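Quick start: what a row looks like.
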Amino acid sequence: MQTESNKQKIKPGVVKLVIATPFYEVKGYSPYIVSLLNSIRLLTQLGIEWDYYEISGDSYVDRAKNTLVNRFMDSDFTHIMIIDSDMYWEISGFGRMIQHIIHGCPLVGAAYPCKNMWGFFGCFPNYDDETGLVKGREYGNGLRLIDMNIMPGGFIIYSREALEKTKPFIKIYYDMVNDINYYEYFRCSIEDKNVRIGEDVYFQKRYKQAGGILWLEPDVTIKHMGIQAWEGNYQQFLLNKVGSKEVTPLTVPDYGEELSCACP
């Protein structure tokens, strides 16, 4: 990995985290619930204030995410983590992502196998022009991040700073049902060369337009649930070319996994 030194010293800051999930079918997978509970336990152990937002039954995922994020922006919380309802994640990887935001990372995501393209993690890293290596950064406690061009949007932590930074590059729309104006952070759109992009890539493009960097923590193991689930770890894919594997959804790693991370 091509790394770059930090121009400014990263100082740990106060984190108040919202975990948010839109539920299209008004239901969540049981492994998602297990991961959610373990994550809340870890946040509590670390002394991090947290809240949980959900929105059920909205058939437009971009509108659902906008509703969740605009609610967050009206709160006093510092970060919102949007997680799809069909995910199971190992707590150690979640802990690394928490470390990143404690150290000042404004936006960090993780990758997982894409449905119906199970060997693909939805990742397009940025490469150094001179070395041809993936760009990234490393800092303290063995933490590392990959600089992404595009990454999947089902497991991302957004800081208030990142969302505020993007406001000049997005539109505002009027919600007649709730009689309120919303910032349109997420939107399905047709852009360059008539290519249709999803709501997560739309935000990522606007965020980069505003000067932001998309950071990805590669070492997070996530199961993407369905009738079957597909498990993968992007770091293992990069280092060892180990792709995703099909697993039974109800056969999840040890629920009693130790809840710990090297957070300051």
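That is the whole record. The domain at 16-242 is CATH 3.90.550.40 (Spore Coat Polysaccharide Biosynthesis Protein SpsA; Chain A). The CA atoms of residues 6 and 139 lie 8 Å apart.
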